[in-house]
Amino acid sequence: MQRAEPTGPLPAELKTFIERGVSVMVGTRDAELVPELVRAWGPRVSRDRRSVSVCVAMAVGGRTLGNLGDNGCIAVTFASPGNSEAIQMWGRCIGTGPARRQDLAAVQEHRDAFTLVNKGLGVPNPFIEALWQRELAGSPDMVTIRFVPEQIFNQTPGPDAGSPR
Amino acid sequence: MSALRTLTVPLERIAPCFEGIVPASVCSCSREGLPNVTFLSIVHRLDETHVGLSFQFFNKTRKNTQENPRAQVIVVAPGSADQYRLDLRYLRTETDGPAFDRMRVRLEAVASQTGMGRVFRLRGVDVYEVLDCRPVNQESRSEILPQAERMRELEALTERLGSCESLDALLSTALEALADLFGHRHSFVLFPDEEGTRLFTGASYGFEPSGVGSEVVVGEGILGVSVERRSVVRVTNLALDRLIAQAVRSGVERRGEQGNLEKEIALPGLPDVKSQLVLPLLSRNKFLGVLCLQSAEPGRFLEADERVMQIVARHLAASMANTMATPSAETRVAALQSGPAAPAASHAVVKHYRSDDSIFIDDDYLTKGIPGRLFWKLLQAFVGTGRAAFTNKEIRLDASLGLPDIKDNLEARLILLRRRLDERCEFMRLIPAGRGRLNLDVRRSLTLEELP
After folding, report:
1. Could you give the ipTM of this predicted complex?
2. The predicted structure's pLDDT at residue B72
3. What's the pLDDT at B332?
4. Neighbouring residues of B359: CB distance < 8 A, sequence distance ≥ 6
5. Which pLDDT does position B320 carry in this prediction?
6. In the predicted model, what is the mean pLDDT of residues A7-12?
């Protein structure tokens, strides 16, 4: 399988971008190359800026976690609801586990920022609240996924979407 | 052909997810096993087991699905925020056909509106078979109620229209009924001009000021493209369309390709319009005008609303054709129609510019074009001979007016003129007097000035 090297420390502006209330979607695949999508919360860049963590609700992320355990391939797209600016990271999962206190704090912070950004666009708070609550139905548990980005792409709609950053 | 598949959740049950109100996302995977995730402004439901993803630029999703046909999308229900996973298998790419055409007209309409007509071009629609559709969280599934049938409302509307004997009454009644019966509180009707290059607003409901007389160029913007293509255009989240257009615009500017960008066109109607439904009014393939519904709410007009409003538009067009063919059927008599004009309280100057037939009353613009020419003719007769009563027939046959063949829409011009006067002039009115007659009511002495 074609693999790129880790990208090195993520630029500071990228850290700012993914930690400010973006919409986050995680893509994985199984051994048969069947893709699986899930919404993620609380994106955080590590202190050394070499890895990224996101959380998914256990109730909706079972197959995603299975795929990561199987092959570790992960794609995560971060999009700003306010201006459609988006980036995608392709990378390798380096660990999953129950969300810790600081992960849950990041989730809370992200939810608040995401709600605020959407409110500014006329999306009512109860809608964002429902989006969140419905993922937790049946299980309140969150799981943290840590990964090392290996390739980063501009994903903003337009002629340059998909170009490397 | 594949056997009909039973999905965990039938696509019809979650139809609002396929309206482009809330963005969706797609994950594909390359032959080498690298997943790829992209946000989508809309996933199109083609039928009960197929969806379409439209594309304008080359992208990784397309590259991947050529290699590995499996993909997955997540769509979000606009009201409940329920998410659904759709497991997909790529089948083919369409570059023509009804689904492609419908998406292309919609894209071109929004592109024209946002000044992106030279950038946005629908290249194709990738058609996917839906292998299954299920809630993202099996534990959380709210029932989506099917939209109520609107047969009663349709019946009531056609009953109201059936009693209208003039075009003016027909349009007023129709727009009022759309508000009363269907809750569509902002609507207007535009008529074509003689050359077929412009449209002007002839009737409106729920706007202050009414906007009567405002113009749209055929082929420009959502309204103009709908008319040019004689095609319904439904926009469910113009705010999202504008955001995406702005993002693409920035990308085009960064590439130094500003030459491909055009100005965003002001959309007539509500300042914060999010939803818009534009329905051409066609009777026996003859274009009579366009009905436009607007709302400040995203997702106000869904697929089911479009079907119902299409019935309304067709019925309205047939009724319009009928009244236009028999203008003398007008029997409404206004209360002020009889008797000589009231004594002039003061004086006013009316100017007519021959270059475009524009009319100014005490230097305030009233109208132009055919309605301007008509009004000038009436005023000349009124000031010259004191005549205040006219018939539609004499206007239609008056060769000195040099009117083009406007037999069908003379009434539309008179409606526009009458409404502009009602809105913009306190001392002159055109009053329908029944049986194809018109009275000119003037309450000031007038001086007419003809200018080049």
Report:
1. 0.95
2. 98
3. 34
4. B350, B351, B352, B365, B366, B367, B368, B372, B375, B376
5. 92
6. 86
Give the residue-averaged pLDDT of B423-450: 86
CATH no., domain B151-325: 3.30.450.40
At B451, which amino acid appears? L
**Total domain count for chain A?**
1
Say if the Cβ atoms of B33 and A33 lie within 8 Å: yes
The answer to whether A111 faces chain B, any CB pair under 8 Å, is no
Suggest the residue from A22, A60, A90 to mutate for an interface test with chain B (most B CBs closer than 10 A): A60
Interface of A with B in 114-153 (CB under 8 A): 121-122, 127-128, 130-131, 133-135, 137-139
- Measured in residues, chain B has a length of 452
Nearest CA in chain B to A71: B33
- Nearest by CB: A84 against B68, B137, B247: B247
Q: CB of B336 within 8 Å of any CB in chain A?
A: no
CB spacing of A73 vs B248 below 8 angstroms: no
Q: By CB neighbour count within 10 A (0-12 exposed, 13-18 middle, 19+ buried), where does A123 fall?
A: buried
**Contact assignment for B247 to A1 by CB distance below 8 Å:** no
Domain range annotation of chain B: 11-135, 151-325, 347-451
B41-55, B214-228, B249-263, B283-297: least confident range:
B249-263
Query: Largest Cα–Cα distance of chain B, in whole Å?
Result: 90
Q: How far is B189 from chain A (nearest CA, A)?
A: 28
CATH of the domain spanning B347-451, picked from 1.10.10, 1.10.1760, 1.10.8, 1.25.40: 1.10.10
- Spatial distance between the Cα atoms of A150 and A10, rounded to a whole number of angstroms: 10
The residue type at B14: I
User: pLDDT tens across B111-147, in order?
Assistant: 888 888 888 889 999 999 999 999 999 887 666 666 6
Segments forming the whole domain that contains residue A131: 12-153
Type of residue at B54: S
Contacts of B25 in chain A (CB under 8 A): 25, 37, 77
Token code pair at residue B256: 């130094």
